[in-house]
């Protein structure tokens, strides 16, 4: 081995590496540094023995301490259940209105409600509860079956056309066209009539022709003025909210085919306190207030 | 090729004997080649102004460190009565009359920036003052050497003791030293935890085993680091572990004061007998007093070095000798490279304090400090964020009006409940209301003291007022004569078409 280059100032060998004319001296490392290295090696071995470490073909080395993150999560969940148990008991014993008036309990109910809503209701009503075509928006002030706390609670419990003996929506919207109760021209005229009801411009001749048809076929549920009926789940035709769309095609299609929404009953699936929490959550998101309640059903168009 | 860092001419250092390849191999065989065992350093006690200053600073700084957590400071209600407290549980930082929230961590950042700039300025002007006098590593090492000296005597006695065979004398001195070190280490770690919890409560909990685990962990961790760093590692922390000796090279220039061997006066060095003439020779007696006094184990006569912490102990050591031989003191002194070079050329040295770098640092320091003080003086007791509902972004009501939901997070940093008025601006005719309350032009809320209150607000606007799908808007909170605005938007999508 040839003699390596030596730094003339210090007399120490260089490593031979050079950056912009600066050379690295091959100084020895401190001895304690070496011991730190050995210490780390020893620690690694201890760790391998105690903790899960090495992957194998069919599993991994479990380690003597039996540590498992998965078991840790399960334990945390049990603890969470215990915590919820105490709060849940409070939910069970007080009324819906009392929950809403107790900020602490309301906050708890909102948390529970939010997670339950996300897991179960969001599929149809959307993650934020804004609904979709055919699935009611739960954030606004229009409620087919009532928007008070008790109404919401009842709807979740028994569902709509769900097969539950007390299910809501005992009436249905007939398929006037498909079942040949009305002919195409009549349905067309009715469409114009409904458009006019919500305060928009419509063909006055068609509206005139449909007046009698509306009174005969529709008014029994939707009311003479088209203001709807909460007890039957008949929507107001005078407002800005349209479950199946507001344009003429959508309205015509609904008169022709008469779609009827279904919502399952949740009584068997959720505990009573969960349904309470969910009701409080939905009520709060919708505005949770008197303004909405006053506006439900029958409110006139602006 | 070597890079010459100092541009002034220096005496040639004694060339080290070149090590042959064969010798290297032999050294490796002995286990001394690749790794370097620590050469123990036995600093000798010196007397002089710098040593006295170091003792004084040591006492002042350690007193501040140990006493601060015990200072009481009356605060209203259930708030902690500790003057300086980092309260993780309550998420607050208390410093006498100042109480900072986590959102105001920029004040801590500002303090760190001020400290850094102050350090840069001090270094550019006076060299490594921090390393020599204020760094905890230096202060605790100094204290530990003091203890060592108390048990084992000064340099020569310590060297003799280490070389001596095991005896009762050696064992009790060593044991006493290490136990005292551990006790100081424990006091250090113990004091640390009091900055994070009410000190009188914690000390009681600590001794009966009721304190939180973190208190035990950190007190023992700092006991260990103090014992190891100040007792065993000492100068190795500065040389191998600390980045500052490397960084300081960028702060220093030829006009920075640093501990300097005035080789213009000292060379050529050599032994001097009483009565001999001083003509034709330098003042340095080559007596090694500066070397044995150095806690870093270097020879200052080799010029400025990475290891030198600028503590000035070699100055005191040399001055003692100079006085004894009747020569003027200051052969080693706080001086600048440029002054030495000037004297060598026969000029009177000039000391320049105002140099571009010191001016930059001073200006930056002044700007940041002013900003910090201004910020602290104008600190608002109110802070607000408006979070708009994202799903759904807006809701159309039965009458066609558009509603947006917001959650306002309003912090009341005062210690009193604060009644405030909340208004919404940016959309003509918009009405605000809390859940379950009638709509109004403004909401009235009482904010809880020293807390963040979440206020749910619904804003409703008529479609006629919405000429764009997204309108810039803002919430205004008025309380205690102050107004706080939080910008947001009001969304309506294509909602104004039925």
How do the helices and strands follow one another from N- to C-terminus of chain A? Answer: EEEHHHHHHHHHH
Number-wise, the strands of chain A total 3
* Biggest sheet descriptor of chain A: 2 strands, antiparallel
Oligomer: heterodimer
Class by SSE composition of chain A:
mainly alpha
- Percentage beta strand of chain B: 15-25%
Features:
A: 302 residues, two-stranded antiparallel sheet, elongated, B: 498 residues, alpha+beta, 5-stranded antiparallel sheet, 4-stranded antiparallel sheet
What does this 3D model show about the protein?
The complex is a heterodimer of chains A (302) and B (498). Chain A is mainly alpha-helical and 302 residues long. Chain A has a domain at 1-65. Helices cover 49% and strands 4% of the residues of chain A. Chain A has a two-stranded antiparallel sheet with strand order 1-2. In chain A, 30% of the residues are buried. With 498 residues, chain B is an alpha+beta fold. Chain B has 3 domains: 39-249, no CATH class; 254-344, no CATH class; 382-491, Immunoglobulins (Immunoglobulin-like). The longest helix of chain B is centred in the middle third of the chain and has 27 residues, at 168-194. Chains A and B meet through strand 3, helix 1 and helix 10 of A and strand 1 and strand 8 of B. Strand 3 (29-30) of chain A pairs parallel with strand 1 of chain B.
């Amino acid at each position: 081995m040839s003699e390596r280059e030596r730094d003339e100032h210090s007399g120490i060998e260089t490593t031979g590496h050079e950056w912009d004319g600066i050379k690295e001296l091959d100084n020895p490392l401190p001895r304690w540094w070496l011991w730190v290295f050995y210490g780390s090696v020893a620690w690694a071995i201890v760790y391998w023995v105690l903790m899960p470490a090495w992957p194998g073909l069919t599993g991994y080395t479990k380690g003597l301490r039996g540590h498992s993150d998965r078991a840790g999560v399960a334990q945390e969940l049990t603890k969470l259940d215990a915590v919820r148990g105490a709060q849940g008991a409070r939910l069970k014993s007080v009324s819906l209105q009392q929950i809403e008036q107790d900020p602490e309990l309301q906050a708890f109910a909102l948390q529970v409600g939010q997670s339950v809503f996300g897991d179960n209701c969001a599929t149809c009503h959307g993650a934020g509860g804004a609904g979709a075509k055919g699935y009611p928006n739960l954030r606004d002030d229009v409620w087919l079956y009532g928007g008070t706390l008790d109404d919401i609670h009842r709807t979740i419990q028994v569902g709509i056309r769900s097969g539950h003996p007390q299910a809501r929506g005992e009436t249905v919207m007939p398929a006037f066209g498909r079942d040949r109760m009305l002919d195409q021209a009549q349905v067309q005229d009715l469409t114009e009539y409904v458009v006019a009801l919500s305060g928009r411009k419509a063909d006055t001749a068609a509206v005139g022709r449909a007046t009698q048809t509306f009174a005969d076929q529709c008014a029994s549920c939707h009311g003479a003025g088209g203001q709807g009926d909460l007890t039957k789940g008949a929507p107001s035709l005078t407002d800005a909210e349209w479950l199946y769309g507001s344009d003429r095609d959508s309205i015509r299609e609904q008169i022709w085919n008469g779609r009827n929404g279904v919502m399952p009953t949740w009584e068997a699936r959720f505990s009573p306190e969960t349904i309470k929490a969910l009701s409080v959550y939905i009520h709060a998101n919708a505005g949770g207030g008197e303004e909405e309640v006053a506006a439900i059903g029958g409110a006139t168009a602006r | 090729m070597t890079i010459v860092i100092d541009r002034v001419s220096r005496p040639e250092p004694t060339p080290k004997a070149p090590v042959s390849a064969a010798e290297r191999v032999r050294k490796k065989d002995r286990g001394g080649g690749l790794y370097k065992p620590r050469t123990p350093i036995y600093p000798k006690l010196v007397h002089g102004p710098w040593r006295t200053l170091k003792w004084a600073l040591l006492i002042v700084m350690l007193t501040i460190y140990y006493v601060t957590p015990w200072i009481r400071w009356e605060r209203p209600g259930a708030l902690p009565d500790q003057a300086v407290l980092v309260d993780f549980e309550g998420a607050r930082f208390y410093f006498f009359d100042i109480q900072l929230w986590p959102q105001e961590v920029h004040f801590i950042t500002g303090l760190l920036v001020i400290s850094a700039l102050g350090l840069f300025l001090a270094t550019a002007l006076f060299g490594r003052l921090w390393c020599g006098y204020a760094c905890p590593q230096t202060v605790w090492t100094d204290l530990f050497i003091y203890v060592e000296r108390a048990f084992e005597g000064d340099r020569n006695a310590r060297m003799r003791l280490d070389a001596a065979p095991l005896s009762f004398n050696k064992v009790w001195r060593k044991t006493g030293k290490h136990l005292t070190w551990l006790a100081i280490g424990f006091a250090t770690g113990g004091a640390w935890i009091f900055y994070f919890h009410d000190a009188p409560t914690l000390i009681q909990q600590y001794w009966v085993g009721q304190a939180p685990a973190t208190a035990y962990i950190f007190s023992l961790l700092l006991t260990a680091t103090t014992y190891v760093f100040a007792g065993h590692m000492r100068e190795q922390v500065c040389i191998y572990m600390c980045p500052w000796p490397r960084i300081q090279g960028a702060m220093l220039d030829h006009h920075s004061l640093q501990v300097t061997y005035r080789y213009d006066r000292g060379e050529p060095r050599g032994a001097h007998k009483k009565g001999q003439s001083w003509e034709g020779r330098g003042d340095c007696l080559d007596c090694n007093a500066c070397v044995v006094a150095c806690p870093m184990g270097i020879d200052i006569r080799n010029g400025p070095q990475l290891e030198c912490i600028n503590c000035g102990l070699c100055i005191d050591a040399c001055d003692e000798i100079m006085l004894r031989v009747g020569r003027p003191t200051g052969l080693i002194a706080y001086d600048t490279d440029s002054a030495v070079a000037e004297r060598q050329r026969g000029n009177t040295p000039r000391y320049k304090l105002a140099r571009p770098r010191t001016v930059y640092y001073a200006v930056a320091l002044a700007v940041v400090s002013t900003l910090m003080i201004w910020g602290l003086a104008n600190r608002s007791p109110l802070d607000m964020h408006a979070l708009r509902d994202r799903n759904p972004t807006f809701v159309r009501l039965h009458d066609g009006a558009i509603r947006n939901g917001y959650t306002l997070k309003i912090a009341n940093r005062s210690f009193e409940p604060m009644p405030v008025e909340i208004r919404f601006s940016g959309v003509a005719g918009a009405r605000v209301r809390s859940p379950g309350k009638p709509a109004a032009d403004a909401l009235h809320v009482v904010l809880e003291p020293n807390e963040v209150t979440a206020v749910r607000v619904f804003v409703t606007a008529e479609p006629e007022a919405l000429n764009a799908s997204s309108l810039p808007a803002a919430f205004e909170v008025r309380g205690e004569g102050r107004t706080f605005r939080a910008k947001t938007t009001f969304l309506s999508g294509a909602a104004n078409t039925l």
